[in-house]
Each structure stands twice: as C-alpha cells, then as structure tokens.
Design the sequence.
C-alpha cells in the first residue's frame, strides 16, 4: 500500500518536474531570441540626438542662418516632488513661460496617461549653472545640449528664409520618418528645402533602469548635419533695402539674365529667432495680431491693383492688336478727364495730345482709357494671363498667391450680361478695379521686357551642398519666352527708359548718374486710405543686370515715393565692384 | 558510528552558496541606489546564514523524536506568534508578515512566523498521524482499512466502521481545528505562497500516512473551496488570478522576459537587466528569474535538479526510517516543504502558476526562510543519522 502511494507520488512529482523543465526550455531555448529582444527594448532607451540643420548662406558666402548649442531642460514631472517643483519654478521664474504643450509631451501622454514630460528649450547658461550646482536636489531633471537655430539678420530675411516650429500632426503625415517634438521649417526656404536642411538625427542608446535613470551609454549613432543652402540673395543689398523701405512695403530685385533673386524684402518683418525654441503664446499673440501683419509676405502673398504699371500690358496688347503704334496720337487729347457714359474719368494731370511713347512716359490715364475701351476686357486680360498674371510665377518657396485677372464672363456674372459698360475696360487698362497682382508677378513680367523677351523663373537657391562640400543641387536658369513680338518689347523698353530719363517722365527720381535706368511708376488708388506706390525698374538699359520692383503700401505717389528707393537700390547694386 | 547523510549536506551547501552569489548579484544595484552600498542585502543575509548553520548543526545532534514529544507545544507557540504578527506588527505593502524587535544596538531584527509555522505544522501533523497509526487502536484501524476495500469480512468491517467514526469524531476534528487555525492565521497576513506550500505538503503527508483516498479527496475539496473563497475575498489575490489567466501583469511579463532572455548559457553573472528595477523584489520572490537571466537554462536546470535530488534523498531517508512512522513522515514532510516551495517559486517566475510571493529555499534573500529551511535540514540530517544508528546495532 505504502509503496504504491510512494510510486504514485513519484510519478506525480516527475510529471510536474517535467512540466517545469519543458516550460523553462520553451522560454530559454525556443523563444530566447524573442525575449532577448523584448528585454532589450525594456532597458535600452534610444535617445535622439538632433542633427544640426543646414547653414544658409547668401550669394557672397555670408552666413545668414546657423546653429548654436543651447541648453534644454527635460523634466519628468511625474517623478518630481512638490518641493522640487516649487524650488525649480522659482529658479525658472525669470524665463518666459511657454503655455503651449509640446508635441513630445502630448505623444507621451497618449502612450501613458501618467507620463508628463516638460521640455524647456533655450535655457540661459546662468540657470543651467544654478541647476548643476544643486544637481543632487533635482535628480529628475535632465539637461541636454541641443543645436538651436540662429538667424543672424533678425527681421531682414524673415520672409524668404522663413522660420521653424514644432512639427504639427498634419506635417507628421507628410514626413512620416519624423517624430513628434522636432522642429521643422514652417515657411520660406526653411519649409521648401526641409528635406535638405534637416539632416539625419542620430541616436544615443543608453541603458536605463525601470525608472528611466541613465546607467551607461551603449552605442552612439552620430547625427548627420543637414545640407547647406546657398541663396542667390545679396545680404548687403537686402539689408540696405530693408533699411530704406518705409514701414510697410515690398521690394524684390532679380538678375534678369538668370532669374536669381538679389533681394526679397517684405516689411514689416518678424524675428524668426522668437520661434526657434517654441514660441510663447504671448509672443505668438503679438506677432499674429499685429495690425501691420508682419507674417504676411507682401512679395508673394499680398495682391494689389497694379495701377499704371499695368499700362505696359495694355500698351503691348494695343500694339499686338495693331491699333497702336509709336506714331499714333489719341483721338481725344487729355484735358485732365474724359467722360465715359455718364461718368467722368479723371487723369492725374492735363497732358494734352500725346503719342504712345509720351503716354507711357507721362502715364496718361486718358490715353489708356481710350485704348482700353477700344480693346475691350478680354483681349487685355488674355494677354495679361499669357504674360504670367493670374497664376503662380513658380518661385521655389511655398505659399504664392495667384492674383486675379477678370474676364468678361466674370463681369457678366457679377453685374449681369450687358449691364456693365465701357468704363470697366477703361479702368482695367490703367490697372485699377478688380485686377490684382503680386509684386513678384510684376517683377517677372518686367524682367522679360528688360531681357528682350526672355524671362527666367525667379529662384532663391543657387546651390545646395552636403556636409562634405559636394554639390547636391545646382541652380540652372529656367527660361521662357515672353509672348510678345520683339517690336512690341522694343517700344515698351523705349517708353520705360523715357519714364526715368525724360524731363516729363514720372519716374525721374529713380535716375542714377551714369546709369541708364528704365522703369514705370504706378499709383494704386485705395478706397481705404492713402494710395499704394509702385515702381518697377531695370538697369542698365543697354544690358540689364538688375530688375527691381518697389511697392510701398499706402505710400502715396509711385514716382515720388517708390522711384527714389528703386534708384538707390540700382545704384547700390551696380556701383558695387562685381 | 554516527554517519550523517553527506549528500544532503552537500546539496544544501551548494544551494546556499548559489543563493549568496545570486542575492548579491540581484540586489547590488538596488541596494547601491537605496543604501549607497552594493553589499547591503548580501551582508544582511550573512547573519541568518551564520545562525542557520549553527542551528542546523545543533539540531542535527538532537534526537528528532523530541520534536514529536513537544509537537503540541510547538504548534501552540506557532499559533501564538501568528496571532502576535496579526495584532502587533506593522504592515509592509499591505501585509503583516514580520515581527520586529528593536534592540539597543539600533538594529532591527525581524522574522516571519509563517516560515516557522511550516516546520511547526509538519511536526504536528507527522506526530499526530504517527500516534494514530502506531497505537494499538490505529493498527487495527489500518489493517481494517486495508481489508475493507477488498473484502466484505463482516466482523472486522463493523469494527473498522465504528473506529473510523470514532476517529472522525474526535481525533480528526482536533487535527482539522488546529490546522484550520494555523491556515487561517497565515491567510490573514496574507501569505498565500507559504500557505499554498504548507497545504500541498500536508496533503502529501496525509497521503503517505495512509489516509483513505476518499477522505483525502474531501480534504482536498475543502482546501480548494476555502482557497477559492479566500481569493474571492482578497482583491489583490483576485487581481493576480485574473492576471494569470489573461497572461498579463507587469511582474509576470518582466520575469518571463528575464528568464527568456537568458537563453542557454545566460547573460553571465551580474549582467542581468531585469534587476534594474524592472523586476520587483529581484532578490526575494523573483530570484529564480535572475538566475534564469544570468545563468541561463543550464543554471536553471542545475538548481532545479538540485532541489529534485534533495527531495529524493529526503524521501529515501524517510523510507529507511519506516520503523518509526513519525521519522518517516517528518523526513518526507521536510523534504516536500522545501521542494514544493521551490516548485511554486519556479512555477511563478516562469508563468505557470499565478503570482504569489514565496522565496526560493536557501537561495532567496530572507532570514526566516533560510533559518527554518536550515533547521529542517538539521532535522533531516538527524533522522538520517538515527537510521544509521539503528543499522549499527
């Protein structure tokens, strides 16, 4: 009996022992690899190391944007005690508070509702010193050194270069390889060339314990810095333009022979440095609610009536359609106004009888009212579209406006068929009314005239080099033909030369000694306030090297406000030893 | 001449040695963090080890029959201590397992009565059953019970039935009440791991003590039912059961990761990662997981086989001592309490049993456990010596 029971017990024990051994074998021999991997994920924490973004240079190798090392404090607020918090916040009280929750924090919160990590970037050295001094009192606070974007020229380059900010969920879909919490280009060059500028973040693999304390570094994958971007902009010229342009306006200049943009100024600018560490809500409020709209790029986003500058288009249309030639004089001489229908359309001066060239030189409205009425809406607008208005120029930074070119059909819809008169086309001919263009479009068109019918797509980037100095992208001029006959272009050029050089020219103030400047003024009537001043110019006349558009919001007369600025820019650019 | 079973002594020493190394390896990191010295737990373990070795040696010199003589007293003291711990001790992590004394030299001495209750209960039950079967009354009972299953021999059968009722009514009742009190007190601490090991061991002792299978099944059902009720009443036990059946739970996952990551040869002594706070209690309730991670399958197999050999040798000692039923049951009981504890510990760490805190005998950090196991080995050694003494004659 007893032996039987002992035997039974032995069988039972053996079975159980076998189960244990089988279980151990299945864990340690069969699925060891799997568990090794799982365990590794447990105790190895990949710690991203930010790659420094590429440096941005101007055309003369001047550094416009680079990176500086800066201190970042990361606080795991879960493990921070109340006492630490109080002491810590008193240390940090001198820092501007960012109320916006960072992306990293949100992501971590999603993974673990109790996880809260606060990141404070751009911590001043003195505070880091104080923290390091009391390090044993703040065991849960991690201090890291990260590259921080530095914009050397503050506001001057804010629009072409743009700014960076923390990645949004939408952007994360575009760049799936990115992670939450990193900074990404939000506008301008920073956005368009993001893929080049970003580089590749490195990773520091650290062994951590279950509470996240770092024990020892395991391996290090060093970050690859981003590619450097070389702009076509001339920093000196840009600074000068920013300086002489009144408080609100836009100025853009290109080399008409290649399309390289020499300056791109929209005023007022903003300081991109305020975005580099995550913008505080107060600063954001200040920038976004500023009545002068500093974030608005007046070069490519803002659209305005082109005013008398558009007379060049009307004129071209007249010549192409055969109703205008340099000898033609207007049927009705300018007496300061003309009556169309029941309304009196004013000219800005009494010009008397003018031929075509003089009409351009003196910018006679009455002359072009009559041309406009004879041509009608559609021919002018169709040509305007052919010349690049009403669509994007194709500049290499995002967010361009198309502007607006109306059609007869559009007017029919707006006023009803046959319920709008010739006044509309008269008004359109002098660039007033519904037509809207961006300064960039005007520049593009005028550069074609300057360059005898060949126009180049404006571009901001000359080349991109990788960290080893090899070129990974090089700018090649992209040429088109202006759909105008050489004869038409010659007449327009002659007219524009007269605008600056003729005694009666509206743009005399743009004149530069020893340089033959050609241009066209514009004064856009603005029902809400002071007129907008336009001036578009190229120089030298014989062999244009610069083409410039100056636009001053609510500036007044184009000839008196915008023209002198253009003159100074041309002088500064052409007189500098090249 | 007196000859002790050197095999058991050797295995015990190997296990204790492995234990010291593993306690150091698994606790060095956390003790460095908390106590600023990596050897805190290691040194703390040396004291009970020293006392344990001395006690083991002393106990091996004492005739084991004396424990049977004082079994009621031992059980009484055990129950008193268990009451004490419930009434006067401070709870640690929601459990009341430790009795603490603070002496003048500013050091705390603490011990777990439940660990000593293991021995108390085994001695008591072994003595109780041996008295019943060894006495003239029980001898006829056991003969009768043997025959009753096979023959319908009238006279003997009626005799057997009447005596069985007698037993159930009086003796069995004492046993049940005494054990129920101990079990309840341990369950109230709560210390389910130890309770589970004691229950299994008691069942085995009853089984080998020639208890009727039907009774055993009844007792088994009773224990099972009580256990079920207990688990249902204790929210944390309930959660653990739920975690076990759903294969969830942080501790279990970390423990399995650790063992699994060890592979065949392990990461090497001291190279385990689970002890970096990933695994709670790496030096006590989950020390086998650290062994698995650092010493691999080979280390686990060696430790498991050592426990198996210990069990087999223990049972052999018992079988050779058949002349004395008490000696047999005591040897078997001690062997099994060690083996069952080890089995539960290993089962828990590799996820085939629900999580319950039970130390791995001789290896885990913890003075009471080490002491009571070493005392048990001492008794076992003495039984082996007694056997040889009788052979010498």
Sequence:
């Amino acid at each position: 009996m007893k032996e039987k029971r002992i035997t039974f017990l032995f069988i039972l024990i053996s079975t159980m022992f076998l189960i244990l051994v089988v279980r151990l074998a299945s864990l340690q021999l069969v699925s060891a690899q799997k568990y090794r991997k799982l365990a590794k994920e447990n105790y190895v924490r990949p710690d991203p190391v930010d790659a420094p973004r590429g440096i941005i240079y101007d055309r003369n190798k001047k550094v416009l944007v680079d990176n500086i090392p800066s201190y970042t404090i990361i606080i795991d607020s879960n493990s921070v005690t109340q006492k630490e918090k109080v002491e810590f916040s008193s240390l940090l009280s001198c820092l501007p508070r960012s109320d916006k929750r960072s992306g990293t924090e949100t992501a971590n919160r999603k993974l673990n509702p109790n996880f809260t990590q606060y990141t404070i970037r751009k911590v001043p050295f003195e505070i880091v010193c104080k923290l390091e001094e009391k390090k044993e009192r703040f065991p849960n606070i991690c201090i890291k050194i990260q590259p921080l974007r530095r914009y050397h020229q503050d506001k001057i380059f804010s629009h072409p270069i743009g700014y960076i900010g923390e990645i949004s969920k939408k952007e994360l879909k575009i760049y799936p390889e990115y992670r939450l919490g990193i900074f990404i280009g939000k506008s301008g060059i920073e956005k368009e060339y993001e893929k080049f500028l970003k580089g590749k973040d490195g990773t520091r693999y650290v062994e951590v314990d279950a509470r996240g304390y770092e024990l020892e570094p395991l391996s290090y994958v060093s970050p690859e810095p981003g590619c450097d971007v070389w702009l076509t902009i001339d920093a000196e010229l840009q600074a000068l333009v920013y300086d002489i342009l009144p408080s609100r306006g836009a100025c853009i200049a290109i080399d008409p022979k290649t399309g390289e943009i020499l300056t791109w100024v929209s005023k007022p600018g903003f300081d991109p440095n305020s975005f580099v560490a995550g913008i505080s809500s107060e600063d954001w409020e200040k920038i976004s609610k500023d009545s002068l709209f500093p974030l608005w790029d007046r070069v490519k986003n803002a659209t305005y009536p082109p005013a008398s500058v558009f007379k060049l288009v009307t004129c071209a249309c007249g010549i192409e359609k055969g109703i205008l030639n340099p000898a033609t004089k207007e049927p009705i001489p300018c007496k300061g106004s003309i009556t169309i229908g029941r309304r009196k359309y004013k000219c800005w001066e009494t010009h008397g009888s003018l031929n075509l060239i003089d009409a351009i030189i003196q910018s006679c409205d009455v002359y072009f009212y009559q041309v406009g009425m004879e041509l009608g809406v559609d021919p002018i607008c169709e040509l305007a579209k052919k010349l690049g208005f009403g669509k994007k120029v194709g500049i290499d930074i995002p967010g361009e406006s198309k502007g607006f070119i109306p059609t007869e059909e559009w007017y029919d819809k707006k006023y009803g068929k046959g319920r709008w008169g010739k006044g509309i086309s008269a008004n359109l001919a002098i660039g007033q009314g519904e037509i809207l263009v961006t300064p960039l479009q005007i520049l593009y068109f005028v550069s074609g005239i300057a360059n005898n019918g060949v126009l180049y797509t404006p571009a901001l980037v000359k080349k991109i080099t990788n960290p080893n100095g090899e070129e990974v992208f090089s700018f090649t001029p992209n040429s088109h033909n202006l759909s105008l006959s050489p004869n038409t272009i010659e007449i327009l050029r002659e007219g524009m030369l007269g605008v600056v050089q003729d005694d009666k020219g509206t743009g005399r103030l743009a004149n530069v000694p020893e340089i033959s400047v050609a241009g066209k003024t514009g004064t856009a009537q603005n029902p809400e306030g002071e007129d907008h001043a336009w001036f578009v110019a190229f120089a030298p006349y014989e062999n244009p090297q610069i083409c410039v558009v100056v636009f001053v919001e609510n500036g007044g007369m184009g000839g008196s406000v915008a023209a002198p600025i253009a003159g100074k820019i041309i002088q500064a650019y052409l007189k500098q030893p090249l | 001449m007196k000859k002790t079973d050197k095999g058991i002594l050797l295995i015990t020493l190997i296990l204790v040695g492995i234990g010291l190394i593993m306690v150091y390896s698994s606790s060095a990191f956390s003790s460095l963090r908390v106590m600023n010295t990596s050897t805190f737990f290691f040194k703390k373990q040396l004291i009970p080890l020293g006392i344990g070795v001395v006690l083991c040696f002393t106990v091996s010199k004492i005739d084991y029959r004396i424990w049977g003589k004082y079994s009621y007293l031992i059980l009484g003291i055990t129950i008193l201590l268990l009451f004490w711990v419930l009434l006067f001790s401070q709870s640690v992590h929601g459990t009341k397992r430790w009795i603490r004394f603070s002496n003048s030299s500013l050091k705390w001495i603490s011990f777990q009565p439940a660990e000593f209750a293991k021995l108390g209960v085994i001695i008591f039950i072994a003595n109780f059953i041996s008295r019943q079967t060894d006495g003239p009354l029980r001898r006829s009972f056991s003969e009768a019970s043997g025959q009753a299953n096979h023959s319908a021999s009238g006279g003997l059968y009626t005799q057997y039935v009447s005596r069985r009722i007698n037993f159930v009514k009086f003796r069995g009742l004492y046993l049940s009440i005494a054990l129920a009190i101990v079990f309840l007190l341990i369950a109230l601490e709560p210390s389910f791991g130890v309770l589970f090991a004691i229950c299994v061991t008691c069942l085995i002792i009853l089984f080998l003590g020639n208890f009727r299978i039907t009774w055993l099944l009844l007792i088994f059902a009773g224990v099972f039912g009580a256990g079920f009720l207990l688990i249902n009443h204790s929210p944390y036990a309930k959660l653990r059961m739920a975690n076990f059946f759903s294969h969830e739970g942080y501790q279990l996952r970390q423990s399995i990761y650790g063992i699994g990551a060890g592979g065949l040869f392990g990461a090497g002594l001291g190279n385990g990662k689970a002890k970096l706070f990933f695994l709670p209690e790496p030096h006590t309730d989950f020390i086998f997981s650290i062994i698995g991670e650092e010493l691999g399958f080979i280390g686990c197999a060696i430790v498991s086989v050592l426990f198996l050999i210990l069990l087999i040798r223990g049972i052999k000692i018992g079988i050779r001592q058949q002349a004395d039923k008490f000696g047999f049951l005591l040897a078997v009981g001690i062997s099994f309490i060690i083996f069952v504890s080890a089995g539960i510990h290993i089962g828990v760490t590799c996820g085939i049993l629900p999580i319950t805190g039970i130390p791995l005998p001789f290896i885990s950090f913890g003075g009471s456990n080490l002491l009571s196991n070493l005392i048990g080995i001492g008794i076992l050694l003495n039984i082996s010596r007694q056997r040889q003494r009788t052979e010498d004659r």
